[in-house]
Amino acid sequence: MITIENVSKSFGGVQAVSGCSFTIEEGSITGLIGPNGAGKTTLFNMIAGALAPTSGKILFQGEDITGLSSDKLFHKGIVRTFQIPHEFDKMTSLENLMVVPPGQMGESIFNTWFRPGAVRAEEAEVLRKAEEVLEFLQLTHIRDELAGNLSGGQKKLLELGRTMMTDAKVVLLDEPGAGVNRTLLKKLADSIRQLNVEKGYTFAVIEHDMDLISSLCHPVVCMAQGSVLTQGKFEDVRSDERVLEAYLGSSAHEAAE
Ligand SMILES: Nc1ncnc2c1ncn2[C@@H]1O[C@H](COP(=O)(O)OP(=O)(O)OP(=O)(O)O)[C@@H](O)[C@H]1O
């Protein structure tokens, strides 16, 4: 579904991603692992349109999407989990979902004055969808709670819910497990799996929690120093000597610093 072809990105003298190539197959939950500084986030930023590659190509269903803005990619169905912005803390869970669909009619004064019936019908449809999403994620009980009062895990579920308000085809999840307790982590993993199987979402997941990667992701791609070191089944990647060396090398480097 997404093909990364020989993609590189440098920031001044720092080569963050270097000749990186792999594919995210349709219907997969592809895990992206690698030691700190391997280039995972930079690569995600390029897939999601937040950064343009220095060289190389990114294809989506065969179409060249290299350098397209995140807004354009969003409309094509490539969605990155949004960290819930600070100002949205003051909105309820339901409202956080309802503001996601872009270009709603009620945003235009012309429509609210001259086409109030159509605006109301669209709002009712967005409300129905938001309530359905809350039910799917078993979050109905926090429908009217301010997002700022939710636990870390509930926020992650709500972020996943926000991707469900769009017509997502590919969802990029950046460390979904970080700061989430074990109970909610299971629920989050179950929801991701259910979205993958029932709604056909393709996922790419950056994650440091190896339990989550092993239970959720296939295949797993391991990056080191900006390129793909190896990829395949989690067990094979984990037992690859080069992977171990890359992680050990990175922690030795950090310890020295
Ligand atoms: N905006 C930037 N300016 C300069 N250097 C950057 C920038 N963004 C990333 N880098 C560098 O690029 C390299 C790759 O960073 P990146 O954040 O992509 O790695 P990562 O694999 O996501 O690491 P982590 O697991 O720690 O999040 C690092 O050396 C980092 O310092």
TrEMBL record:
InterPro entries associated with the record: AAA+_ATPase, ABC_AA/LPS_Transport, ABC_transporter-like_ATP-bd, ABC_transporter-like_CS, BCA_ABC_TP_C, P-loop_NTPase
GO CC entries: plasma membrane
Keywords: ATP-binding, Nucleotide-binding, Transport
Entries under SMART domains matching the protein: AAA
Record field: transmembrane: none
PROSITE patterns documented for this protein: ABC_TRANSPORTER_1 (PS00211), ABC_TRANSPORTER_2 (PS50893)
This protein's record includes keyword ATP-binding: yes
GO molecular function: ATP binding; ATP hydrolysis activity
ABC transporter domain ranges (all copies): 2-250
Keyword Secreted in annotation: no
Name of the protein in its database record: ABC transporter ATP-binding protein
